[in-house]
Amino acid sequence: MSAKISLTPKEGKYLTFMYRRHVEEDERATTTILAKSFKVNPATATETVQKLAEKKLVEYTRYYGAKLTEKGICEAKKLLRKHRILEVLFVKLLRYDAEKACEEASKIDHYCSADLINAICRTYGHPDTCPCNKEIFSDSKCRRQE
Amino acid sequence: MSAKISLTPKEGKYLTFMYRRHVEEDERATTTILAKSFKVNPATATETVQKLAEKKLVEYTRYYGAKLTEKGICEAKKLLRKHRILEVLFVKLLRYDAEKACEEASKIDHYCSADLINAICRTYGHPDTCPCNKEIFSDSKCRRQE
DNA sequence: GTAAAGTTTAGGGTTTACCAAACATTTTTA
DNA sequence: TAAAAATGTTTGGTAAACCCTAAACTTTAC
After folding, report:
1. Of B35, B123, B18, B116, which Cα lies nearest the Cα of B71?
2. Which residues are within 8 A (CB) of A48 and not within 5 positions of it... i.e. 6 or more apart?
3. Three state DSSP letters for B58-118
4. Which of A32, A140, B103, B120 has the most beta carbons within 10 angstroms of its beta carbon?
């Protein structure tokens, strides 16, 4: 049993943002980039990254930047799964366009239980990509409970 | 233009709880009842009710209890609409039972935009009751944007 | 090697949501 | 009806989540 990780909504947003950099770009996110992206003061970004480091979700090197740990990657994937399954729901059920789907998903993804997300996932036949063609990570509990 | 009301998640829960008492029972909610329902210290319930009173959402009389104002009823209905539309979604789309649907709806109702709720409402043909047969209040913007 | 750019620290601030203990009011009941 | 019991409020905290400015420090690029 690993200690349960409790993420705040904002921490979750940082994590998913960093995941994208991590896999799509050059591996690290500087606090300045984070600060600009989230429109906050650099000091605030530093603070949040340090919180994530305390929780062992990122490896943080002062003046250099941060990089997700295995644990961080795992959490980011869980969140991205939620986000992307919600996007699928909004596009398929409500005919939202990808952008609007993303916007609405962002408002609630953090608050949705894994159970709820899995139920949606099953309903749509375990989609493997979101409306903008990004991977939807799988959850071992999802197919098992069919 | 009336000043925009900003409700915290907890305030929203209090408001909807009080709405039920207001229409289904004896019109007032004492702080003790609220404290018991939300499993908090009576002092906390008093504090929250006072916040709602400041926002003119309830009429609060010390040592007696609180009653929703027109504005409070209006806000409560907006929240209950969100909650109940989500319940419909979870029951119809995911075959959740009413209780589980309620539980999951409670986690996200506060964060869902009126737009999203209306889109779901349209998809299900403007249902007028939730899975437990309670009224789903209408939103004038919902049918208009068909 | 120094100046500019980038980053962190220190010290605050606000809001939300709690609690315990002391106090005030209302209700009950003996 | 007066005192005890139940109810409700005030006071004075705590903690977490976000956010900021200003000053100090480190890196980088000339």
Report:
1. B18
2. A10, A11, A14, A34
3. EEEECCCEEEECHHHHHHHHHHHHHHHHHHHHHHHHHCCCHHHHHHHHHHHHHHCCHHHHH
4. B120
Phi then psi dihedrals of residue A67, to 5 deg:
-140, 140
Interface residues from chain A to B (CB-CB < 8 Å): 90, 93-94, 96, 104, 107-108, 111-113, 115-116, 119-120, 123
- Distance, in Å, from the CA atom of B87 to the CA atom of B107, rounded to the nearest integer, reads 11
Whether CB of A65 is under 7 Å from strand C: the answer is yes
Minimum-distance CB partner of A107 among B111, B119, B120: B111
**Among B107, B110, B111, the residue to mutate for chain A (most A Cβ within 10 A):** B111
> Hey, are the CB atoms on A111 and B113 less than 8 Å from each other?
no
- What's the whole-model pTM score? 0.93
pLDDT digits over A46-101, tens only? 999 999 999 999 999 999 999 999 999 999 999 999 999 999 999 999 999 999 99
Exposure string over A36-56, b if 16+ CB within 10 A, otherwise e: eeeeeeeeebbebbebbbebe
CB contact under 8 A, B116 and A104: yes
pLDDT tens digits, A98-145: 999 999 999 999 999 999 999 999 999 999 999 999 999 999 999 877
